[in-house]
Amino acid sequence: xxxxxxTGVGKTFANGTTALVPVTxxxxxxxxxxxxxxSGCGKSTLLRLIAGLTQPTTGTITRPGPLSTGFxxxxxxxxxxxxxxxxxxxxxxxxxxxEGEINQPITEALxxxxxxxxxxxxxxxxxxGMKMRVSIARAIVTGPCLLLMDEPFxxxxxxxxxxxNDDLLALWQQNGWTIVFVTHSVREAVxxxxxxxxxxPHPGRIIADLPTQLPSSRDAGVRLSHAFADQCADISNxxxxxLQQRAAS
Amino acid sequence: MxxxxxxxxxxxxxxxxxxxxxxxxxxxxxxxxxxxxPSAVAGALWSDGPELLGALxxxxxxxxxxxxxxxLTGAAIAFLLAQSPTAERTFFPYAVFLQVxxxxxxxxxxxxxxxxxxxxxxxxxxxxxxxxxxSNTLLGLxxxxxxxRDLFLLYGASRWQVMTRxxxxxxxxxxxxxxxxxxxxALIGTVVAEMVAGTSGTSSGLASRLLEASxxxxxxxxxxxxxxxxxxxxxxxxxxxxxxxxxxxxxHESARTAES
Lengths: 249, 260
Fold this sequence. Notes:
The complex is a heterodimer. Chain A is 38% helix and 24% strand. By secondary structure, chain A is of the alpha/beta class. Chain A has two domains: 1-64 and 145-233, Rossmann fold (3-Layer(aba) Sandwich); 80-144, no CATH class. Chain B has helices spanning 3-27, 38-81, 85-100, 103-113, 117-142, 146-154, 159-197, 206-215, 219-247. The longest helix of chain B is centred in the first third of the chain and has 44 residues, at 38-81. The A-B interface holds A 51-53, 66-67, 69, 71, 73, 75, 77, 79-82, 90-91, 93-95, 122-124 and B 145, 147-148, 150-157, 161, 165-166, 169-170, 172, 250-252.
């Protein structure tokens, strides 16, 4: 069964630039799919199209409903005037749930991202990594089946990013979400996902759709394995070829 | 520099300034109708104090009413202007027009058109005070985090939810910044309006008393009025600043103390 179906979806901006050449793809339920590519390749546009934040110029998209979709932005995008609890509560309050109904899911979401002790903190008291955890807690608090993540860890230092990568993988394995993860890091894409969509810019298009061949239960050791290095090299080469072809033409 | 020293320094400077003034007035034997010394002003403040405070209450009533009105209407106008770029382009120039027109030049018309002197003063003080609130609030409304907007859109937030849960809190620091400026402007507007309107009698405000005293060359009394008005403006600023810090204490950089 597929969680997201994208049929002939293309996007041309009002100024005539083609952000995305029409693509068709299916994302299976419970899969972890990464979209990787350099800036300007349309990967964020594709994600925003899937989320319904941007309307496609052509084609159709089938997706789960709003409360079944969680979105994580590149910046943590927290409301600075609200506590961690109030930030995580936002999707539930917007859906009109009563104060009595929201406590349980908030506590659970904070537990899952390891922030139980910070319920009453304000965003400015948190580190970059912790803010991103709050952002993830907010995305999963509605109990979604689809998680869309737009370069969520790009602004974090490497140690924090690895830790969050590991924790995200563990959460995915426990909860069975479908995750679409946009990143500009080939290594991050290969480490996290089961399938990598490689995109190239000018115009934005998908140049490869590859399964990753890594053990399904991954731990930090995978990052040091030969299989991991080979996969990363393969994707990097394809990207370089695409970029050079464009430069030559 | 310790906190105590920082607090004391401006006070010491003020005392030195007053002392120099007092000494110079005595050394050069300046007549009191030209320039009274601080002791003479203090004397006038003491003897006329209750009466002047009564007049200050009249001025303050107009100032605060104008400030509250400016806060409400200014925020409302900004919200309306923010609804569409067309609305802003159409109406904002008139807000600017309101701001750059000296209220002294509007006063004669308002005095002719409106009978009630309180309303006249209120209108003029409002004209002086409303613009910073409109322009700051509008800036705030246009500075709302676009990702947060997307988030609200994603979860299907209603217009009302967007307004109360996103726009109002994001705009609050800007609005409060405008309010701090408008506090002083409302007082200035009231004072100018009182002077232009030429109110007199027992129910007139402090600016009218200042003008009367200066006509009679009672400069000590006039300076006492001046001192009270300045002190009022200063206290008004401190109160609005404290309000701003209190409301933003948890989250906004402007309310961050040096220690935290």
